[in-house]
Write a structure and sequence with these properties.
Distance between the termini: 27 Å
Strand order of the largest sheet: 3-2-1-6-5-4
Strand content: 25-35%
Largest sheet: 6 strands, antiparallel
Helix content: 25-40%
Radius of gyration: 14 Å
Number of helices: 4
Order of helices and strands: HHEEEHEEEH
Number of strands: 6
Amino acid sequence: MSTKSDFYKSLTAQAVALCEGEPNRLAKLANLSALLNLALDDINWVGFYLREQDSLVLGPFQGKPACMRLPLGKGVCSAAVTTGDIQRVANVHEFSGHIACDGASNSEIVLPLSDGEQIWGVLDIDSPSFDRFDEQDEAGLRLWLAAVIPLL
């Protein structure tokens, strides 16, 4: 791929193809985490946390074992839920209330998953590099989610 934009367009087409025809959300999330893990470079964890009352519960992921339950009100994933905004953190060690599930993670991007009325989970991607995710990654992942969410 010649540009990040082209890369994310291709990634989106692959994600849509994986989801089409499968009714089970959990199966689709599992394959989507595997797809992202294979496609994205310089990451050490990618997965989904699913909202359950006042916490986020670990869903399908790729990487080392992770925190199974994250309380709302603390951490990057919680900030994505409470604000409804993408959280792109260049240095997680400087993020107040960061929850370190893997000490090797140094930057993170978290995208809220919404059905239009409420946020039902997040997509969380960690990297061992500082400042791994830029505006182009954020824009590409935003478009990726816009195409995938209606299929979930």
